[in-house]
Amino acid sequence: MREIQTKKKISKIKKNKTRKNSRNNQNKIAINSEFESGNIIHKSTNNNKVVLEIKDEPYKKSTKNKYQNWFYFKVMGIKQRTRFTIKNIHNYDNDWKGFNVCYSYDNKTWKRKTTRLVNKTKLEWSINPKKSTIWFAYYPPYPFSKSKKLFHNMKTIGKSGEGRPIYMKTLGSGKYKVWLISGQHPGETVNSWMLEGFVKRLMERKNKMFKKFTFYIIPNANPDGNVHGHWYVTKQGINLNRDWKKFKSPEVKAIKKQIDTIGYNLVFDLHGDEGSKNHFLVEIKSKHPLFDFINKRLNQKNKHFQIENYYKPKYMKHVKDTLDEYTMGITMECATKHGLFNHKTLQQEPIKIGKDLADILYEL
Length: 364
Fold this sequence. Notes:
Layout (H helix, E strand, L loop, with lengths): L1 H24 L4 E3 L8 E6 L2 E5 L18 E5 L5 E5 L14 E4 L6 E3 L2 E3 L3 E6 L5 E5 L6 H4 L7 E5 L5 E8 L3 E7 L7 H15 L1 H7 E6 L4 H6 L21 H13 L3 E8 L6 E3 L8 H11 L11 H4 L6 H5 L2 E6 L12 H16 L1
Parallel strand pairs: 3-5, 13-14, 13-15, 15-17
Antiparallel strand pairs: 1-4, 2-3, 4-10, 5-9, 6-7, 6-10, 8-9, 11-12, 12-14, 16-17
Helix pairs in contact: 3-10, 7-10
């Protein structure tokens, strides 16, 4: 009898220990986006199901399509397979179709996780974590603090709506004036990675490039939007790339003043597109004389760069207030839904595009 009672006690202890270990192994998830460029609202966690929302941007009430694709957050204490849902997706033109969330275990190397678009209003993905801390984002982030480190001794040409500096860097002494403007839309961080690639190749070939060209580079045209984790607009709700006719924003005014004073031969406006499967150049009515040559060479260097303008004529008909229209410039659109391809991390694709562009200018 005593032997039976002892076995029962041992069995009870083992069961209690198993339950305790099970409780200890459960998710005790903490989600944080209170850092530079962060954006997410944690609504709930229940049975390893996390519900999230993207923070609203300060659009004007009159704005018809309130794009807010950008999200970026850190998950800590994740131990089990967990499903994440972002439930307030604004799905204009079905741009979320085919999107796969970006994730990283070190906030440096980024890959993609298969993601479902549910009823065109929700994003869902599940992950069985290899580590207890993961970052998720729309695309590998490029915070304002990082763009400030791209060059030493940058010139401050103005201030943003919240008083942050608008930086410009001048490189070279050639007679052909080339501008590169990045970050008008802060959530399109792919544009900053393109610029980084361009600068890397430029510095490798500066002996020739600096004699032929003078480069004027704006590494972050919308620092407020970048810091606050916006996709499209400034803190005041202005879409900078629709402000090149009325010039209401201090950011565009500062850049315009420099462009008008210095002059230009060619202006590149770097962007990311959320709908296209391939990268492309935006063709406007009065296109630059070098447009076709650059477009063809980019297509030859990268099979994921298409010749055709992804934007339909009906849309382009109403494009009259952009930087392109003001300068007869060239907008480069990198497809933000692109795959990993043969790269180790996602941002190597736009870095390659930036290098390709520098190589093309080198050929001129």
